[in-house]
Design goal:
The structure is a single chain. By secondary structure, this protein is mainly alpha-helical. A 3-stranded mixed β-sheet has the order 1-2-3, covered by helices on one side. It is elongated, with a radius of gyration of 26 Å. The termini are far apart. The model has no long low-confidence stretch (mean pLDDT 81).
Length: 293
């Protein structure tokens, strides 16, 4: 990520200069996008290092949400950038400006190579880490931006239609905006501690209920600290069994949750009678039952 940051920063300066010389909105758009990549890569790198810090009394969950916050900031800047690109493209449609097609194609080709290399460097782990995923999407947005700039340059060279330059920018901006929305939606769901989208709760409850020794499930909660770090807590209704039997049951349920749902951190409260409520999803703000002394 550090290498990608350095390469991108150097290239931003070169591409911005080329965009000014060629009077190309597509190149300037790509340079601006690359500039946000510099900030995105720096933020992602910092968040990765921060998430490695151990938990302590002040932050018992550690710093795993730092990457989620970085992903939210990165995706939000992507969305803002896309809106700005569309606004500037509209101005270019109303007042077209001459574009140096040769400069556009040449610089766009160089940018394509740089963006492919940096995207490949950051791609490792992007499937499992939302922070890396947001940085990777930033860089892949650059790949598409430069590809659009190259195609616009080719089109202008053969047709002379200068409006192809802002058109390419609009198409790129729409694609960037869509990808930004996908990341924003996922980060907000994680921050709101929503159930991961790939988990069907009715199926999970069925799997729990089919386990030997389980008579009921209630007060069930499933949430994530990050894309891969998932947690579960539940009250499990059982017969009046020994502590060692409860421990073996807990181990079986933990193995089940990890294998089928990728949940490695579970907290189970075993009960012979419902302790708070028999509701499957207990209201966390409800006052506990008062018991006589």
């Amino acid at each position: 990520m550090a290498l990608s940051l350095i390469i991108t920063l150097v290239f931003v300066v070169m591409e911005a200069a080329a965009g000014i010389m060629a009077n190309s909105l597509a190149l300037l758009t790509d340079a601006a996008h690359n500039l946000t990549d510099v900030a995105a890569l720096a933020l992602s790198w910092y968040a990765l290092n921060l998430s490695d810090r151990p938990a302590h009394a002040g932050k018992t969950y550690g710093y795993h949400r730092a990457g989620i916050l970085a992903a939210l900031v990165n995706s939000t800047t992507l969305g803002c950038l896309a809106v700005g690109i569309c606004f500037e493209a509209w101005r270019r449609f109303e007042a077209p400006a001459p574009v140096d097609a040769g400069m556009l194609m040449g610089m766009g080709s160089a940018a394509l190579v740089v963006n492919l290399v940096t995207a490949w460097l950051v791609s490792h782990g992007a499937d499992h880490d939302l922070n890396l995923r947001s940085a990777f999407l930033h860089l892949m947005g650059d790949v598409l931006s430069t590809l659009g700039a190259i195609l616009a340059g080719i089109g202008i060279h053969f047709t002379g239609y200068g409006w192809l330059d802002p058109l390419a920018s609009v198409l790129i901006a729409v694609l960037i905006l869509w990808n930004a929305w996908l990341i924003i939606r996922e980060t907000v769901e994680i921050l709101l501690e929503c159930t991961p989208r790939d988990i069907e709760m009715s199926v999970m409850v069925r799997d729990l209920m089919q386990s030997d020794g389980v008579r009921g499930v209630h007060d069930l909660h499933v949430w994530s600290l990050s894309r891969q770090l998932r947690f579960l807590s539940a009250h499990i209704l059982v017969d009046d069994i020994s502590v060692s039997e409860a421990g073996r049951l807990r181990d079986r349920l933990a193995e089940l949750m990890e294998q089928r749902y990728g949940i490695r951190h579970i907290t189970l409260q075993f009960e012979t009678t419902p302790g708070c409520s028999d509701a499957l999803y207990c209201n966390a703000t409800r006052k506990p039952h008062s018991h006589p002394h």
